[in-house]
Design goal:
- The structure is a single chain.
- A hairpin with a 2-residue loop joins strand 1 (85-86) and strand 2 (89-90).
- The protein has 9 helices and 2 strands; from the N terminus they run ααββααααααα.
- With 286 residues, the protein is an all-alpha fold.
- The protein has a domain at 79-223: Cytochrome c-like domain (Cytochrome Bc1 Complex, Chain D, domain 2).
- It starts with a helix and ends in a 74-residue tail after the last helix.
Length: 286
Amino acid sequence: MRQGVGSREEGVERRVLKLNQFAAMSAMAATLVLAGCRQDMQDQPKFFPQRGTDFYADGRSVRPQVENTVARGQLHENGYFYTGLINGKEGDGMPFPATLEVLERGQERYNVYCTPCHSRVGNGVGMIVQRGYMKAGSFHSARLETAPLGHFFHVISNGYGAMPDYASQIVPEDRWAIVAYIKALQLSQKATQADVPAGVRAESLSSIVEREGLPASFADEWTLPPTAVTGTPDNGLYVLPVPGLPVSSAAPSANGEGSTSRSNANPAARTPAGQRAPQQSGVPKQ
């Protein structure tokens, strides 16, 4: 009797073992089948930019834009907001109110992107200029103090001289915020009592230095560091040509150290590095 029970139990165990083996083999087979059907992204059917294809009748993989349509976010109805230009000329105005919030945003963006060259006070003596990079423009020069606001936006968007464009780093709204802050920087250096609200007293930099206990040299005239370079033989700032003005040039000497063409150049720009920064009408960077 006991022998019969034992035989039945052994038969059940053998059947269970066979079922487990079958299940394992089925799982392995399914894995192999799925692996064979796998298609990595690098192998999937797709179009390559600027390559032909036989999928479309015209043989082009890149499809032309649908006529009379504009991609989302690219309408740009307000041309001045995106270019700083009005009928091809630099405009002089903000496309939106310059509120305190806008100025604070402009200061934050200016400190990130502009101070390395132009410095925090906008005198063009930023830290990388002090370490040998090309001299940057001073926002307190006569030319830039009278420049329209659209000029600064256009320069930020497209670059100027040695200054690269920042269109990819700074969105248009932030560019305008920086423009507003630059104008605030300019006003802060030559503010008079008439420029401030009633009850607020305009102070000179020297009086602020004395009140804050700073060194007297803090209020001295700005100077260009001896390490600053220009790339011109006379160490003067290169001035971009101005449309409508004659271009003065002189042939270089035999050793290549003669004068270069520096249109609209100011004689004061020949001041050696380390001396008082020249107040001239043109600069290599903004």
